[in-house]
Amino acid sequence: PAAARKAKVLLVVDEPHADWAKCFRGKKVLGDYDIKVEQAEFSELNLVAHADGTYAVDMQVLRNGTKVVRSFRPDFVLIRQHAFGMAENEDFRHLIIGMQYAGLPSINSLESIYNFCDKPWVFAQLVAIYKTLGGEKFPLIEQTYYPNHKEMLTLPTFPVVVKIGHAHSGMGKVKVENHYDFQDIASVVALTQTYATAEPFIDSKYDIRVQKIGNNYKAYMRTSISGNWKTNTGSAMLEQIAMSDRYKLWVDTCSEMFGGLDICAVKAVHGKDGKDYIFEVMDCSMPLIGEHQVEDRQLITELVISKMNQLLSRTPALSPQRPLTTQQPQSGTLKDADSSKTPPQRPPPQGGPGQPQGMQPPGKVLPPRRLPPGPSLPPSSSSSSSSFSSAPQRPGGPTTHGDAPSSSSSLAEAQPPLAAPPQKPQPHPQLNKSQSLTNAFSFSESSFFRSSANEDEAKAETIRSLRKSFASLFSD
Ligand SMILES: Nc1ncnc2c1ncn2[C@@H]1O[C@H](COP(=O)(O)OP(=O)(O)O)[C@@H](O)[C@H]1O
Ligand SMILES: [Mg+2]
């Protein structure tokens, strides 16, 4: 127990195939503290946070058909998954809010992650950079933003790419050849209750990705093989290219947005006209690609350690066990190294010095607090973090993993839930330079149209709405 107290807990939100515990094995922070890695996907996590600075994270994993819940108190978070996507079961913003509420330090900052939950909101930052640097240095694609379908009447030139809502992996991106098709797409946007953007379709030679992890820079080009205009769909070829001052300026400037991004990447298409068109920035959820993924993971590891050293204090954390007047079963099961030793007393502020407060943009409403499901059961094991099992329950719905296939070398996407039969073997050999990548996404179920509970009801509603929108939009 004495040794266990000398550990800081790092929560890594990532897919299971990325073994972060391995990366942090043997590493120390604050001199002699071990780093205990807890890794889970967003869909397996829940948390409770109290205003007095106490909090607990619950992690549910299925083991042999039994749901195992572990409760622990992370000191730091590394987030490697999209916090939000409009595909089904991809909205984890309530967890980001909870982590911010708990004052958890993280990479990237929770503030920036929250800000990355709307692509046009991020693009607005690119627009600001474009205004500062100018189009020579920062060739941003010309984009138009529509809060809804109503202004989507026509455009001066075609073809364009319409991008609907906040989605990843090429989802919701449509190439539109003429203004009839544009109106068709506008009618689809009318059903989505979200925003859309339109930008010129660039006849491209290849995509460029300039990534920055801490102070490490790499640039890649990705060329479509299968001919799909989205190089992240179908087969593509990936090659590392030389970093230039120009690329460095792009990514350095972008890394300053939202108070600073520890990890980010700028994406551009390189047109057959020889020009670059910047169209996107990715944050810490960006998939690692290319032949240096092991090194990149190492760089992220070092970045996390240096941030932990900077932000964590040696003072043992306080007990999240009996916050306020809570009677929740899960808090009684906490036996985390730090917490179990500390008497329940009034805590000093949590989460390191100077954690930003109140970052939620106005107008966002906190979701009602969800208490972890399951009965109160005694701990079934006496590991340093307690675990308890409950009767098998329905696993969370299928989770589509955002941008994973987008530029990633990974061949599979849309991983099934833990209990489901595997679609494709996930682990894959290390990518070689110029290796062919194949990825395709499939719209699962009702895709980005967030459907109501009853499917027939939803279908009927869709048809009704279609009729209405066609009537109102396209009849003179
Ligand atoms: N305006 C455009 N012109 C040509 N190709 C584009 C354009 N915008 C995107 N693409 C291609 O489509 C891919 C996916 O677009 P992107 O906006 O990154 O969607 P997502 O993030 O959902 O994958 C890009 O990697 C690029 O190859
Ligand atoms: Mg993208």
Automatic annotation (TrEMBL):
Q: Which GO terms describe its cellular component?
A: synaptic vesicle membrane
- Ranges for domain Synapsin ATP-binding come to 108-310
Domain (Synapsin pre-ATP-grasp): give its ranges. 5-106
GO terms (BP aspect): neurotransmitter secretion
The protein's matches in Gene3D superfamilies, at most eight in alphabetical order, are given as: 3.40.50.20, ATP-grasp fold, A domain, ATP-grasp fold, B domain
Compositionally biased tracts (Low complexity): 356-368, 379-396, 404-417
Residue ranges annotated as coiled coil are: none
Compositional bias of type Polar residues: which residue ranges? 314-333
Which GO-annotated molecular functions does the record name? ATP binding
Extract the ranges annotated as region (Disordered): 314-439
Give me the stretches of Pro residues compositional bias. 369-378, 418-428
Report the locations given in the UniProt record: Synapse
Provide the alphabetized UniProt keywords: Phosphoprotein, Synapse
Q: Tell me which domain of life the UniProt entry assigns to the organism this sequence originates from.
A: Eukaryota
The record's similarity note reads:
Belongs to the synapsin family.
Subunit details for this protein? Can form oligomers with SYN1. Interacts with CAPON.
Briefly, what is this protein's role? Answer: Neuronal phosphoprotein that coats synaptic vesicles, binds to the cytoskeleton, and is believed to function in the regulation of neurotransmitter release. May play a role in noradrenaline secretion by sympathetic neurons.
What is this protein's name? Synapsin-2
